[in-house]
């Protein structure tokens, strides 16, 4: 058995972030232009479940009510496996927008470490899959325990592209 992790709050956030992108940019983004990736197979499995149980029904309802999304009814039926994969499963591919779920975001990361999201090669693959926009979802205090991630976050902050979200204010569409 392999050691894998999942983070349900983060999975909910990623799916809701994708919904928000589709709502905010209805004429510019479709599901087949977005990828959600994680370094953990269990997180990918959870994200796919939420994609099927939350995102697809939400989009079907919204599409039929407004008919405004670039996402056509056929795009709504894009299989979760075409949108959500592990970093390794995404190697050699690109999407216009990538949402990266780092998973290991809990208050005890300093004691436990952040696992193989600290692997430089995996991080390189993960952050280079996006053509136009990379959205990294994770707990900053956990990621800061890695010098590599700390440097990445500092770079993003210095360039004014960092948004901190209060997880208590995250609303789910479940």
In short:
By secondary structure, the chain is an alpha/beta fold. The protein has helices spanning 8-24, 41-66, 73-76, 80-83, 87-90, 109-112, 120-127, 140-143, 147-158; strands at 34-38, 84-86, 95-101, 130-137.
N-to-C SSE series? HEHHHEHEHHEHH
The amount of helix comes to 40-55%
Radius of gyration, taken over Cα atoms and rounded to an integer in Å: 16 Å
Can you tell me the overall shape?
globular
Strand order of the largest sheet: 2-1-3-4
pLDDT averaged residue by residue = 81
Poorly predicted spans? none
Strand residue percentage: 5-15%
Number of strands: 4
Q: For the terminal residues, how far apart are their CA atoms? A: 31 Å
Explain what you see.
By secondary structure, the protein is of the alpha/beta class. It is 48% helix and 13% strand. It is built from 9 helices and 4 strands. It has helices at 8-24, 41-66, 73-76, 80-83, 87-90, 109-112, 120-127, 140-143, 147-158; strands spanning 34-38, 84-86, 95-101, 130-137. A 4-stranded parallel β-sheet has the order 2-1-3-4. The radius of gyration is 16 Å and the shape is globular. It starts with 7 loop residues before the first helix and ends in a 16-residue tail after the last helix.
